[in-house]
Structure formats: structure tokens, C-alpha cells
Amino acid sequence: MPPPSRRSGRPRDPDVDRRALAAAREVYGERGWSGLSLEEVARRSSIGKGSLYLRWPTRAALLVAAVRDRARFVADIDTGSLREDLVTFAELWTAFATSDDGRLVERLLVDSHRVPEIAGALADDAYPEHVRGARTMVRRGIERGELPAGTSVALVADLVAGAVRNHVATTPAHLAARDDARGYAAAVVDTVLAGVRARAQPSP
Amino acid sequence: MPPPSRRSGRPRDPDVDRRALAAAREVYGERGWSGLSLEEVARRSSIGKGSLYLRWPTRAALLVAAVRDRARFVADIDTGSLREDLVTFAELWTAFATSDDGRLVERLLVDSHRVPEIAGALADDAYPEHVRGARTMVRRGIERGELPAGTSVALVADLVAGAVRNHVATTPAHLAARDDARGYAAAVVDTVLAGVRARAQPSP
């Protein structure tokens, strides 16, 4: 009998994937890259090391999958309006980024700049979910005519995702609790959209 | 003879400070927070542990001083024009953030969310140099009348510093070499300033 690998055509058990990814996040959060052993992930998830290897060929591939798994919700934001998409994204990302799982996104980014294996695992797929998600929203908005055709997708996504990331990273904990995430998200998005539109107009 | 502490009134030797901070960055870059020992910093800088303790009462205080020391150049940007200040800041920060010392700024931020001692050392002084620096520039611009009086200083600084931070974090290495940092910096700043000004105007 062939092993239940991705190539065998046998369906993967999503519950096994979920448990493995949750255990990998837990171990990485507690012990960092140097403490992320497959033995420990196998132990906490009650999944054999062989099964882990069949799914993720390296420790770094498992880590990248585990961190991204929780950020994937961004891809589902599709309200039909660019402003609403971006405000929803900015608001939800603010909440996610301050959670334990959200903190791992920044940690993975930092580790990718010093650990070649992680950089390698990211190489085919270099953009984190929030960057990719924000870019998709902007692209759809341009297609719908909500922004001028020549708008730089990367610039708009960097401005919105970057402002949120900066806001989260530098708001002291005692202020974060009182934070008006929706109001802040709206101010960011409205400023960026107004700026892009103003620059596209001929000067008076 | 009293020890050459800050309180003794005897001037500190800036060369000793520089050597200690450089050694602390080196050890932190190589070994992370868990490997940052005062013994190792003392050994590499040829400065006694006692002298280190007189200057920085804790390991976390030394680390925060070491990382911030190299980011301090931002505070010196003051061209007399808000646009020029912000473009210069965005361009220089792009270069700094991809350097070995610049990477430590992000690493310290990530570690501050999981290591209480680091969070404690940052508490009195929670804003990284680039956030503080960008805010100072925006504040001066408002005083000079370059932006409307009610402009949110934090919002403008988050947009500019955040876009740059995001751009640097997510540009793959092979593209970063070809990056037009000045052009990107100008596009970010011009979009943000146009957005703030457009939102301050009454709608036509």
C-alpha cells in the first residue's frame, strides 16, 4: 500500500494537518526555531514523525505552513467594495497581529532573515498572507474601476498593511486595549485612497 | 576614588560606550536574547563586567541601548521641508533596515513581545527611533503649515514608516538589489501627503 502522501491521490485527513500545525505553532512560540524539533511536534500532536515528513519534507516547510495557516482568513475578505475590503482587512489584521498566533508572523519574518532554511522554505512563496491578500483586494478594486488603472498595487498594499503593522507593533499594551481598531483602519484606508486618487488627477 | 558612573559627574568615555554597544549587537545578532551574556560582551569589547553594569543596570537595558544607538541617525534629519524630510527618512531607513544592524530593530520588537525583561526596558521609551523620528518630522511640518492643523501625527508617521517597513520586509533579496529606494520613498510620501491634504479639504 502506498503511503498517504499528497501524490498518492488518497485524500489527506484535514484533522491531522490541523493538529500538526497547531503543535508546530505551539512549540515554535515557546522555544523558537532552535527548539522546534519534529520529535516534540509529533509528541504533542500524537502524529508519527513519518506522517509529518510525508506532509512537510523539512522542519522549515512545516513551520511556514503552520504560521501561514492561521493568517489565511485574509484571502476570504471579498465584500465587493475596495474600501470595505481594506477597512475589514485592516481591522481584522490589527486583532490577529496582537494574538499569540499573529505574533508568529513577525517572528517568522525576522527568523527568515537569519536562518537560511526558513528563507529557502519561503522562497517560492515570498509574500506573507497579509501582503498577498491586500494586493489581491487592490487588484480587484482597480479592475472594478475604483482606483485609476495605473495605480501601483504594491504601493497601496504596503501603505495599508504597513500602517497597520506599524500601529500594532508600536502601540503600548495599555493603550492597545482602548484602541479603536475600526476607526483607525478607516482613517488609514481613506487617507491612502484619497492620496492615490488625488495624485492621479491633473493638478488644477 | 568613586567609580566612573553616570552619577559621579565624571565624563563617560564615549569610546567605551561605542565598543560595548557594538559588542552587544554582535552577540545578540549571533546568539539571540538567550545567548546574550554580559560575560561575552565584556570579553569581546575588553570592558570589565563592572563597567558594563555601571552603565546599563540590566542585560535588557544594554540590548535596548545597543540596538537603538545605530538607529539614532533618523533624529538628525531636518531639511526644513516636510516632504524632503520624509523622503530622506524613507530612503535612509530602507537602506538601514536591510543592514545587519537594522535587522536587529525588528528582532528586538519581536523579542519584546515574548521576553518581559525587554518589554520592561522599553516601557519608559516605547517608540523605536524610526517611529519617534517620523513623528517629529510630521509635527514640525504641521507647525510650519505644510499640513492642516488637525492632522494625526501618528497616522502620517505610521503610513510612511509602515510602508517602508513592509516594503523592506517583503521585497525578495534578488529584487532588493534593483530597488529604486528614492523613487519608492517619494511615491510613498507623495501619496500620503496628497491623501492627508485631500481629506482635509471640503468635498467639492
Task: Characterise the protein shown here.
The structure is a homodimer of 204-residue chains. By secondary structure, chain A is mostly helical. The first copy, chain A, folds into two domains: 6-68, Homeodomain-like (Arc Repressor Mutant, subunit A, Orthogonal Bundle), CATH 1.10.10.60; 70-200, Tetracycline Repressor, domain 2 (Orthogonal Bundle), CATH 1.10.357.10. Helix content of chain A is 67%, strand content 0%. Chain A has eleven helices and no strands. In chain A, α4 (59-69) packs across α6 and α4 (59-69) packs across α7 (116-122). The longest helix of chain A is centred in the last third of the chain and has 20 residues, at 181-200. The A-B interface holds A 29, 32, 103, 106-107, 109-110, 113-114, 123, 126-128, 131, 152, 154-155, 157-159, 161-167, 169-170, 172, 184, 187-188, 190-199 and B 29, 32, 103, 106-107, 109-110, 113-114, 123, 126-128, 131, 152, 154-155, 157-159, 161-167, 169-170, 172, 184, 187-188, 190-199. Chains A, B: InterPro entries: Homeodomain-like_sf, HTH-type_TetR-like_transc_reg, HTH_TetR, Tet_transcr_reg_TetR-rel_C_sf, TetR_C. Chains A, B: Keywords: DNA-binding, Transcription, Transcription regulation. Chains A, B: GO terms for molecular function: DNA-binding transcription factor activity; transcription cis-regulatory region binding. Chains A, B: This is AcrR family transcriptional regulator.
